[in-house]
Design brief:
Layout lengths: L5 E10 L2 E11 L4 E5 L6 H9 L6 E6 L2 E2 L10 E5 L10 H11 L4 H14 L15 H13 L5 E5 L7 H18 L2 E6 L2 H7 L2 E6 L2 E6 L1 H6 L4 H6 L4 E3 L1 H8 L5 E3 L5 E4 L8 E13 L3 E8 L4 E7 L5 H5 L5 E7 L4 E2 L3
Parallel strand pairs: 3-8, 3-9, 6-7, 7-8
Antiparallel strand pairs: 1-2, 1-4, 4-5, 9-10, 11-12, 12-18, 13-17, 14-15, 14-17, 15-16
Bound molecules: adenosine-5'-triphosphate.
Adenosine-5'-triphosphate binds next to strand 2 and helix 1.
Length: 342
């Protein structure tokens, strides 16, 4: 069996009193698209910098394909980094930028040219050889930065919020492309982001960070459907959290559970409750029409407010707004609740 691409053994990085990363154990598999997701300051970038060798752990070991690299300088590690600000050489052509790593390694010109062509094809910029970075759009520059890193065939590619500077549409397009490129080259990608949708779209697995620790590691579906903690439930998507008396009334069990807004169906008051469903009665307090779907804020009889999202398959804005201030019965499948830790 292949060694994991990256192993963290009780890795900590403290800056004075700040525990940027605190006793993290982690395994990233060979060929995986792995995302580190978390709010600002949760320790993602510090983890990435320690893998790259730009920063050293205060304690613990980092292994790259089984080899302890904790004390190796960046250039002796078989990893490359793509940054948000591209870090291209402005005075060099695109060909010069992408071929830079090979030039340093003294790869002959003809072979360099062949590989640069291959990379330009991979990132869908054929024929861009002679332009300068200033003559490219943000998305194109990011592709060049990617090509420049991939031409070295690193074992692991580190990406630090690489799409952060792009507008939403381009960002979404690049997410799909980046994932396709990763599949094609088969290199382990480690992607840092604070954007949960981005992490869900691209990753094979995600680690959710909070205050220098990992709260949960799992596939996008596991993280979304079975968040392990209230923090994960709240940070990844919107979640309704129900506990105590209300939870007991609904499920017969006072333990806290989460249910996603899109799993809840807004029914008429007194609608029959199917055996496979849970229900809760309340009043619709807010109706927010968002084109593709409508978001309802429903105040339960126990006082809690639940968020419900329904697609506007047949309804118009006029239809959905009529629900405001009306009593309603919420129904959701028993399969769609998830019990949570702290
Ligand atoms: P962001 O999404 O904002 O980049 P992050 O999750 O990547 O955040 P880190 O950059 O890893 O977070 O920072 C984690 C914590 O460590 C923060 O509290 C930060 O202020 C602190 N920190 C990071 N680098 C240093 C440093 N060189 N000196 C002191 N504190 C630092």
């Amino acid at each position: 069996m292949t060694n994991p691409a990256i192993q963290f053994e009780k890795i900590s990085r403290h800056f004075g009193d700040v525990k940027a990363v605190d006793e993290v154990d982690l395994e990233i598999r060979d060929g995986e698209f792995f995302s580190m997701l978390g709010p600002s300051g949760s320790g993602k970038t510090t983890c990435l910098r320690m893998i790259a060798g730009f920063d050293r752990p205060t304690s613990g070991r980092i292994l790259l394909y089984g080899q302890d690299v904790s004390d190796l300088p960046p250039f002796q590690r078989d990893v490359n980094t793509v940054f948000q600000d591209y870090a291209l050489f402005p005075h060099m052509t695109i060909e010069g930028n992408i071929g830079y790593g090979l030039m340093i390694k003294k790869v002959p010109v003809s072979e360099r040219k062949r590989q640069v062509d291959e990379m330009l094809d991979l990132v869908q910029l054929p024929g861009f050889h002679w332009r300068k970075p200033s003559q490219l759009s943000g998305g194109q520059r990011q592709r060049v930065a990617l090509a420049r890193a991939l031409i070295n065939h690193p074992k692991v590619l580190l990406l630090d919020e690489p799409l952060g500077a792009l507008d939403l549409k381009l960002r979404q397009q690049m997410q799909v492309e980046l994932k396709a490129i990763q599949k094609k080259v088969g290199i382990t990608f480690i992607f840092v982001t604070h954007d949960q949708e981005e992490a869900l779209t691209m990753s094979d697995r995600i680690a959710v960070f909070r205050d220098g620790k990992i709260e949960q590691i799992g596939t996008p579906a596991e993280i979304y459907e079975r968040p392990a903690t209230t923090f994960v439930a709240g940070f990844v998507g919107t979640s309704n959290l129900i506990s105590g008396e209300t939870a007991k009334r609904i499920t017969g069990d006072a333990r806290m559970f989460s249910v996603r807004p899109e799993k809840i169906h807004l029914a008429t008051a007194n609608e029959k409750i199917p055996a496979e469903m849970y229900s809760a009665d309340g009043v619709v307090r807010e109706v927010i029409y968002l084109g593709l779907y409508t978001r309802y804020m429903v105040e339960l009889d126990g006082g809690e407010t639940l968020v419900v999202i329904e697609q506007n398959l047949k309804s118009t804005s006029m239809d959905v707004l009529k629900a405001k201030d009306q009593p309603t019965r919420l129904l959701w499948s028993k399969d769609h609740i998830n019990h949570l830790g702290a």
